[in-house]
Every structure is written in C-alpha cells, then in structure tokens.
Amino acid sequence: MRVYLHSRTWFVYFIMVIAILMSIRHPVLILIGLESGLLWWKILGRKLRIAHIFAALFLLGALAVANPLTSSNGATILFYLNGRAFTAEALAYGLLFGAVLVVTLLWCVILSELMTTDRWLNVCGRRFRKTGLVLTMVFRFFPLFTKQWHRIREGQEALEGGSPVGLKATFRMTKRELLCMLTWSLEHGFVTADAMLARGYGAAKRTFFNRETYKAASIGVAIALLAAFTAVITLAIRGGMEAEIYPYVRIHMDGVMDIIGFAAFFLLCHIPMISGKVLREERRMRS
C-alpha cells in the first residue's frame, strides 16, 4: 500500500511541534500552535464544545492563580496575601505555563487521532516490535473499555429502573459497575492471551510486515519539516523569540530573527495541511 505520508513522517511531525511548544515558551508560538491545533481539530471532523472551552479556561485559570500563591518571584507586587507577595510576573508565568499545557494537550489529542494503531506499528518497526504491540493494544483497549462501560451502565439502569437517585445509590451502582468492568477486563485479557498463543506468538522469531512504502512526497515533506524545525531551534539558540518573565515581563517580538522563527514554526505546523492529498487520505482512512 502506497501512502502519501509515511507513518514515521507523521510521528516526526508531532514530536517536532510538541517539542517546540514545550521548550520555547513564547506567546506568539503558543498562538500559532493553538490556531493550527484548532484547524486540525476541524479537519478531523471534531466539534469544539462548550465543555472543552470551559475545561481549558479552568486549567488556565487554576495554574495562573496557583503559581503566584506558591512563588513570590517578580518585581511588580500587586498585593499581599497572608504575608506573601502576589506579583504580576508570577501571574504572567502561570498564564504562560497554563497556555503551554493547554495547547500541548490539544496537540496530544490530535496525535492520538492521526497516529492510528497501524501507524504506531509501522513507526516501531522491526526494532521495537514488542513496544509497538503494547502501544496498539493499549490504544485499542481505551475505546473498548469506554464502550463496555456504557453497556454495563445501561444494563444496571435497566435493572434498577432508571438512573440512581442520591449519593448512596450512585455509589452502590458505581461499585457494581467497577466490579463488572474488572471481571470483563480480566476475561478479555485471558481471551486475548489465548488468541495470541494460538497464533504462535512467542514460539519463534517473528517477522515484520509493513505495507507502507516511502514516496518522493513523503521524503520531501520530511525534509521540509526538518528544515523548519532546525530554523526554529537555531534562531532560539541565537537569542530569538525570547520571552523573559522574571524579574520583569519582557516579550521580544521585533527583529528579523523573530519574524523568521515565527514563520518557520507556522510553516512547520501547516506543512501537512497544505496538500489536498493528505487531507483526502485522512478522510479515506476514517470513512
């Protein structure tokens, strides 16, 4: 099977984007990562619900408030709380760290959507066959676990004549559901192990079969991703895209180095979205 982008190209793409977001904490990079992440969210056909926005704002606000309560670094004191200085720099650092965490979690969700079990197996390849098998089994277990939980809950509600009323009844039903899930998980694990033994797993050295082949487009995209990533890292090492929080908030957004760095990261995030073949391939895989 010839694919437009190889699985390892996808894996390198996500590692590069997430590594930059976590290592270079600049507001412009975070905004670019948020914009490209939301664009991927729309391309994958997922809807942005109010619960997602509320969870992101809650996490952002909690970290923004928690950091000044635990750290008094910074020169701009807003007020004192129980003898501890509440500084604007600590608040800004909490907001910045919270934004990085929210955007990184968004990209991790996109990674879990685009990196299917087949792609994880192809990434691990011949060198890490056992790791690839464990990853595919874990990723497969989560949707099975959720689906089985809903089935058990529907059965319990049918037996009880509806949803539980009160804290005690809810606790009792949840305990029964957990016991049912534990029994199902153990039984499912034994069935999977017996099936693997029946197919000869562990009897001898196993071969690796990969239907993906590299194409010129995949190699070209990988080179473009590596060039953009190298440009961002090089400019960051040379002092570009700096965001100083302590002792004063100083965000550098001027100069040719910063503009090139932002453009390179924007290109890095959007390279796979540029080609219509990539988008058609993803829609075909989900159809």
Give the arrangement of secondary structure elements.
Blueprint: H1 7-23, H2 27-43, H3 50-70, E1 77-81, E2 84-87, H4 88-114, H5 117-124, H6 129-160, H7 167-198, H8 216-237, E3 243-244, E4 250-251, H9 256-274, H10 276-286
Antiparallel strand pairs: 1-2, 3-4
- Determine the strand fraction and express it as a percent band: under 5%
Strands ordered across the widest β-sheet? 1-2
The amount of helix comes to over 70%
Poorly predicted runs are none
Choose one word for the global shape: flat
Number of helices: 10
* Cα separation of the termini: 17 Å
Quickly give the structural class: mainly alpha
Mean pLDDT: 80
Radius of gyration: 24 Å
Order of helices and strands: HHHEEHHHHHEEHH
Walk me through the structure.
By secondary structure, this protein is mainly alpha-helical. The chain has a domain at 7-122 and 212-286. It is 72% helix and 5% strand. The protein has ten helices and four strands, in the order αααββαααααββαα. It has helices at residues 7-23, 27-43, 50-70, 88-114, 117-124, 129-160, 167-198, 216-237, 256-274, 276-286, and strands at 77-81, 84-87, 243-244, 250-251. The strands form two sheets. The protein has a two-stranded antiparallel ribbon with strand order 1-2. β3 (243-244) and β4 (250-251) form a beta hairpin. The radius of gyration is 24 Å and the shape is flat.
